[in-house]
Amino acid sequence: MKPKEAWLRDEYGAAVMRMPERDAVFETLSDIPVGPLYTAEDLSGFDAATELGYPGEFPFTRGVQASMYRSKLWTMRMFAGFGTAEQTNERFHKLLAAGQTGLSTAFDLPTLMGYDSDHPMARGEVGKCGVAVASLADMEVLFEGIDPEAITTSMTINSPANAVWAMYLAMAERKGADLAKVGGTIQNDILKEFIAQKEYIFPPAPSVKLVIDTFEWGPQVAPRFNFVSVSGYHIREAGSTSVQELAFTLADGIHYVRKALERGLDIDEFAPRISFFFNVHNDFFEEIAKFRAARRIWARQMRDVFGAQDPRSWMLRTHAQTAGVSLTARQPLVNVARVAIQALAGVLGGTNSLHTDAFDEALSLPTEEAATLALRTQQVVAFESGVTNTVDPLAGSYYLESLTNDMERRTLDYFARIDALGGVERAIEAGYFAREIGDASWKQQRDIDERRRLVVGVNAFEQDVQEVPIQLVDAAVARVQRERLERVRRERDPLAAEAALGELRDRAKDGGNTMPAFMRAAHAFCTLGEQMDVLREVYGVYEEPVLV
Amino acid sequence: MDRPIRVLIAKPGLDGHDRGAKVIARALRDAGMEVIYTGLRQTAEMIVNAAVQEDVDAVGLSVLSGAHMHYFREVATALSARDAGDMLLFGGGIVPDTDLPTLAELGVGRIFTPGANTDDVVAYVRSEIARRRGRAAH
Hints:
heterodimer, A: alpha/beta, TIM Barrel, 23 helices, 50% helix, B: alpha/beta, Rossmann fold, 5-stranded parallel sheet, 5 helices
């Protein structure tokens, strides 16, 4: 067999003389050039034993469990939340009845920003893009009829994560559950809020401190809970490339580890409960490579840089969600195809949990029919496609392994750049991430506008608008919420509520772990807004520099 | 010669999803317009104050949180109350077609949804402002 270079020159060269290459960009979505052919030469020096290993073994490139989907499929976890706690509870029950295996809660913006539903800043927003949870009373309605020991629940909550987690655990305790058996995930990743999604309240330093409180408290009290889901999803949605998503997310994870070690915590106590959350976008192989590279980089960092001993500390366990940003409002049914391909990439990447977007999400919150179809898409991948029959079926692909190596290399370059800026918090304050992501999203937009990249139904194969039904949020939601809040404030023990808020203030001031105070506040029916106001008073609020 | 078109791009309310707002701001600026971006978490009052102070020709709101009807109504009402009802109010985000008639009644111009081409946004703002300036001159 002749060398690849000679083959490219002779055979490939002759072929494209006869039939020229298409007028297309042969690059990944991260602008990594893609060659016409990959061979063993692209993997020269590649040692499969050290770069891949077996599934369930260091460095976990092939997956975190030995038997992966042959034993246990990924958790089918659809993100849901809208309107009142009653409405979302009803959707939860329907999703479980449809075969979903875990819950995932979307909160409305006032909740995400730590405002009660009757705060002036909440006007017009209550129950719109998620469910409103302002106190334990809402949490109890939300999980009515659901056993917290039997079903794991993920909660997408960040700045107020400590308070909302405490409400969830308080709800479980009042149902008689043993917290040692209650599993789930709180997103609780404040760094990516500063970097991308912008749902921060307090400045970076106290925000990170609150996260580390959960690292310390969680393993002692609720050891089956993932107290953080280090998230690249939102970084990607804000317009980053796949490589930036990978690099910035892992850099955030490393930052939390460093902060936890600074507090004197034992890495093998907390690291097994760090979880991750990545996007799955359109570029099929690049996305698969991203998941494989993520596991390898994390394992090496944890074992070789931070000295973790417990193999569970080395494992990057991750949730994935198909790319909302890739969905189009035009010809929305085409999104079903996009989501299916993205879901397949997530599964071939070895994700441990998956949300598939509904096709109508560029238009409104998903209707029940659209959400069910998205779940069915996962079920087709799981039960019909055959990709779950063997573990990590793509390992050894010349192209995929080259791409995985390339993404790892580029990620390590980003780590060096972030370290040179003084670490993640300094880089946030310097606007580094905002610039990087802004430039990438601008380039992607121009590529589409100028038709260097084609998007079906948007800049190619355009067609008249398809009408699809829309999920509407009832205007009565805000009233129902306000009434329940008023009742909570009226009926609770005012002295207990005040004492709990006092303890929270003391912990915020003296720097002690805030979680016991949040638990007390939850049980005392303190509202989310009251608790966040105490912290706003002590920590101050953050405003980012405006950069375009 | 006409002064350059001045545009305020604003993010009302609690929504932090600013990719679209920033991309549109950059596209309009690249097209030679003067663009002011408000940053996040603006109330209708803050947006209208900025629009009047900066004497802009157009105000673009970006809302992805589902609260668009609330904010377009508030901003449109406040612009009229400040005698600035002749400014072009347009927007983008997750806005279903079913809301478009009500927005039109409020005097809101075009709404650009996910997948919109930035060249179309530029062309729209340019032609709409030219039309309004032409009308004002007669």
